[in-house]
C-alpha cells in the first residue's frame, strides 16, 4: 500500500472548511460557494468506502446498516458467516443515484459527518481534485459533500470538471477566484 499523504490525519473537520461550507449554504451566493470550494481545495476530504460482497461470496452484503437479520443462528455460526463474507468482500466507493439517473459520489469534511451518514463506512482521505477525478471516472456528475450535514455542498458541472482535471480553485487577495493549473514540466 502506498503511504498516505495524510498520515497524521485524525479525521477531524477543519473549522475553516466547515465555516466556509456553512456560509455557502446559508448565503446561497456564488462568491460564498466558490470560497467554500477553494477552501476544500486546500485541505482533504474523506471518501467513504463500504464492504460489498464479491461475486461468488457465500453471503450477500447488507444493503444498509438498519437491515436486521431474521435468522436465529448461534453466535459461533453467525461469526463464521461474517468472517467468510469479510474475506470475500471488496471495498467500494458509494454513489447516490437520483430518480433521473444522475449519480453523485459522496465525500465528507470530517469523520463525524461520514459516521452520521454510515457508521460502518471507512474513511479514505484524498484531495478534492482526486475525489472529483474518481467521481467522473465512475460516471458521477457531482461530488456531494457532507450529505447528512451539517451543511451539504454539491460540486458539479464545470467546477467538477476543472477539479477532475487536477486544477485547484484559489481565492485571490482581491476577492476574485482563479484556477491553479499544475505545470507538467515542473513535475519531471
Detailed description of the structure:
- By secondary structure, the chain is α+β, with helices and mostly antiparallel strands.
- α1 runs antiparallel to α2.
Strand order of the largest sheet: 3-4-6-7
Low confidence ranges: 57-85
Q: How many beta strands in the DSSP annotation?
A: 9
Structural class: alpha+beta
Q: Quote the average pLDDT.
A: 82
Topology:
Elements: H1 15-27, H2 30-41, E1 44-53, H3 75-87, E2 89-93, E3 95-97, E4 103-107, H4 111-117, E5 122-127, H5 128-137, E6 142-145, E7 153-156, H6 157-164, E8 168-171, E9 177-180, H7 184-187
Parallel strand pairs: 4-6
Antiparallel strand pairs: 1-2, 1-5, 3-4, 6-7, 8-9
Please name the defining characteristics of this protein:
alpha+beta; 7 helices; 36% helix; 4-stranded mixed beta sheet; 3-stranded antiparallel beta sheet; 188 residues
Characterize this entry briefly.
By secondary structure, the protein is α+β, with helices and mostly antiparallel strands. It has helices spanning 15-27, 30-41, 75-87, 111-117, 128-137, 157-164, 184-187, and strands at 44-53, 89-93, 95-97, 103-107, 122-127, 142-145, 153-156, 168-171, 177-180.
Amino acid at each position: 500500500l502506498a503511504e498516505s499523504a495524510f498520515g497524521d490525519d485524525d479525521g477531524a473537520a477543519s473549522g475553516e472548511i466547515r465555516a466556509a461550507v456553512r456560509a455557502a449554504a446559508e448565503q446561497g451566493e456564488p462568491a460564498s460557494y466558490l470560497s467554500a470550494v477553494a477552501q476544500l481545495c486546500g485541505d482533504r476530504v474523506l471518501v467513504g468506502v463500504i464492504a460489498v460482497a464479491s461475486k461468488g461470496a457465500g453471503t450477500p452484503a447488507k444493503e444498509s446498516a438498519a437491515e436486521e437479520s431474521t435468522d436465529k443462528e448461534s453466535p459461533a455460526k453467525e461469526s463464521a458467516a461474517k468472517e467468510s463474507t469479510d474475506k470475500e468482500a471488496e471495498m467500494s466507493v458509494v454513489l447516490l443515484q437520483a430518480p433521473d439517473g444522475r449519480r453523485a459520489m459522496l465525500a465528507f469534511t470530517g469523520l463525524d459527518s461520514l459516521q452520521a451518514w454510515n457508521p460502518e463506512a471507512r474513511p479514505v482521505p484524498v484531495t478534492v481534485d482526486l475525489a472529483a477525478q474518481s467521481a467522473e471516472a465512475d460516471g458521477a456528475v457531482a461530488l456531494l459533500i457532507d450529505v447528512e450535514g451539517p451543511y451539504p455542498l454539491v460540486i458539479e458541472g464545470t467546477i467538477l470538471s476543472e477539479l477532475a482535471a487536477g486544477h485547484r480553485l484559489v481565492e485571490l487577495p482581491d476577492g476574485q477566484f482563479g484556477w491553479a493549473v499544475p505545470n507538467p514540466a515542473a513535475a519531471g
